[in-house]
Q: What sequence folds into this?
């Protein structure tokens, strides 16, 4: 046992740069594959746009009394950005199932680097892809009454990257356990849909039935969506009453959870998911 | 000749055992592979070859026993072993959505190949397997043989001291099989490398310096192909007759030879096979349609050591190569 530990330290210490190279090249592979796959870019663009313009436009007239004059599509905008990230990132994460099916996972796992570097590289790659993909939605801000504020855009992209990282980590965790390609996509659907509906992406967190309040507050996705909405709504003109209804923030009892703490929740959840994924992948080979 | 090269043996295993829940795949193996030789590991599917190779490559832990590869212990110096070996699996492990060169670049970064020399090395190995012109093409557009060649090139990229090839020719057409072996031969001429190759094609083992024959988890023979064949000392005679059962009985009673029906022919081994044929016609008493006499092959070596042919072992259905190939997709 002691022997193993000594050997590991000796190998690992001078090779931190090597580990970084390994993670970087795994990241790069995700970029190359993304840039080659136009179909995927297009396919994953459609659904968020449907939600924004069709659902948003269709329900808009119905809910206009509750939004204090704010276009429902404006309200939906941060939620739809989050949705785009949710779809893309979970797909990136679960794609490890295909890597296993086609043998490439093995090529990665037998290399003389730690599994953590491989999984981290993959997760960063998936998060980057999802963030880039969300730009398609972000550039439409002006159409739904959200100003083109450069600082806001930068903040939104950063928050979306954190969200994407968490969701990719979740996808990776699933792909460590699911061996069948056929069951991968249904499982992703099964996970994505509740995450989305129970996150406050599509409706405000105010005045919910008690059970729904509890569930949404247990969903880590809620803590990833809310900062995005906060950053966008800071730039919007609206009455205090409307703001209180549409962007009430997250409350733990009477404690208003500050944005930085929401981000910490996302980071902690990401770290937990990623660690679990690394653990499972190290054990499979 | 190869034994005189300085340094530790390429592979050294003592008492290797691998037990799964219900099966003992490897039942105690001792093995030394010298530096610079091409070592063939033979046996039917399911004999334990792949499990042994996985232990040596640090992919599975042995239940008992020790092994050192390129001078490093497979259990306690995993990463050092991995840095010094190249691996080519039965199943493809390339990314079809990357180009040939991108696949190699990926591998080089994962193995920490020095960036200053990486590009030259990529050129060298691609040139060696004849894929330099196709380096910019997506691997998805490659044929099975080209992919296998690319995998061999990739296995060599980080200048390993031992190259493990697990069934490098399985599922390939005969022409491509020949070309793969030509690359392996060329490789030995160009690189200071030990090649450890498994195969269940007996004819391919002729390309090796030494071979080990594995059956049911044990090594049953280990020597040069020539020595193994010479040790048999008998030729193989196969006859077709009007009544095979009677012929087998007659061989036993008239000549004291044990014959068996293999692949539809009455088969037996006898010293000086060609000179024996006239006696056969004279004394057998069963009409003979055809006679084939062959010098001993590695198939006969296998037959002599295990009492059956490799094809018979596989057709018993304990393991189907077709299913294995399908799974590998």
A:
């Amino acid at each position: 046992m002691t022997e193993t530990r000594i050997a590991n330290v000796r190998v690992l210490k001078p090779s931190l740069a090597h580990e970084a190279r390994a993670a970087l090249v795994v990241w790069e592979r995700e970029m190359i594959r993304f840039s080659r796959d136009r179909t995927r870019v297009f396919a994953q663009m459609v659904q968020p746009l449907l939600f924004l313009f069709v659902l948003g436009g269709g329900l808009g007239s119905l809910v206009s009394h509750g939004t204090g004059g704010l276009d429902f599509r404006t309200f939906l905008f941060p939620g739809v950005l989050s949705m785009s990230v949710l779809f893309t990132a979970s797909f990136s994460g679960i794609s490890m199932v295909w890597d296993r099916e086609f043998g490439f996972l093995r090529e990665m796992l037998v290399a003389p680097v730690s599994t953590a570097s491989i999984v981290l590289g993959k997760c960063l790659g998936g998060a980057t892809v999802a963030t880039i993909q969300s730009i398609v939605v972000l550039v439409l801000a002006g159409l739904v009454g959200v100003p083109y504020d450069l600082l806001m855009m930068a903040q939104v992209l950063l928050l979306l990257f954190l969200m994407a990282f968490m969701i990719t980590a979740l996808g990776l965790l699933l792909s460590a356990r699911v061996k069948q390609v056929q069951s991968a996509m249904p499982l992703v659907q099964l996970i994505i849909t509740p995450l989305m509906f129970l996150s406050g992406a599509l409706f405000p967190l105010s005045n919910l039935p008690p059970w729904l309040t509890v569930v949404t507050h247990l969903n880590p996705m809620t803590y990833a969506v809310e900062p995005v909405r906060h950053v966008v709504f800071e730039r919007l003109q609206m009455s205090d009453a409307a703001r209180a209804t549409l962007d009430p923030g997250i409350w733990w009892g009477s404690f208003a959870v500050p944005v930085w703490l929401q981000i910490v929740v996302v980071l902690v959840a990401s770290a937990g998911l990623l660690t679990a994924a690394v653990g499972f992948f190290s054990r499979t080979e | 000749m190869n034994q005189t090269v300085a340094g530790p043996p390429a592979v050294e295993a003592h008492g290797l055992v691998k037990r799964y829940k219900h099966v003992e795949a490897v039942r105690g193996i001792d093995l030394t592979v010298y530096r610079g030789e091409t070592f063939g590991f033979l046996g039917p599917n399911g004999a334990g070859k792949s499990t042994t190779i996985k232990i040596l490559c640090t992919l599975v832990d042995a239940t008992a026993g020790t092994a050192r590869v390129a001078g490093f212990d497979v259990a306690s110096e995993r990463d050092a072993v991995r840095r010094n070996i190249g691996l080519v699996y039965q199943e493809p492990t390339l990314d079809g959505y990357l180009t040939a060169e991108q696949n190699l670049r990926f591998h080089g970064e994962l193995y920490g190949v020095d960036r200053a020399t990486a590009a030259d090395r990529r050129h060298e190995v691609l040139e060696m397997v004849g894929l330099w012109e196709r380096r910019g093409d997506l691997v998805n557009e490659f044929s099975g043989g080209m992919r296998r060649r690319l995998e061999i090139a990739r296995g060599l990229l980080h200048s390993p001291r031992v190259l493990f090839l697990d069934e490098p020719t399985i599922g390939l057409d005969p022409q491509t099989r020949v070309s793969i072996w030509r690359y392996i031969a060329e490789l030995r001429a160009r690189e200071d490398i030990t090649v450890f190759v498994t195969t269940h094609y007996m004819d391919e083992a002729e390309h090796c310096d030494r071979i080990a024959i594995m059956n049911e988890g044990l090594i049953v023979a280990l020597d040069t192909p020539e020595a193994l064949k010479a040790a048999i000392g008998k030729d193989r005679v196969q006859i077709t007759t009007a009544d095979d059962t009677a012929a087998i009985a007659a061989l036993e009673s008239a000549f004291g030879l044990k014959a068996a029906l293999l692949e539809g022919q009455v088969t037996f081994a006898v010293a000086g096979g060609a000179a024996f044929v006239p006696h056969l016609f004279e004394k057998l008493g069963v009409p003979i349609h055809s006679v084939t006499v062959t010098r001993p092959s590695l198939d006969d070596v296998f037959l002599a050591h295990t009492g059956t042919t490799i094809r018979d072992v596989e057709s018993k259905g304990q393991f189907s190569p077709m299913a294995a190939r399908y799974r590998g997709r």
User: Anything to note?
Assistant: Confidence is low (pLDDT under 50) at residues 1-14 of chain A. The beta strands of chain A are 250-252, 255-257.
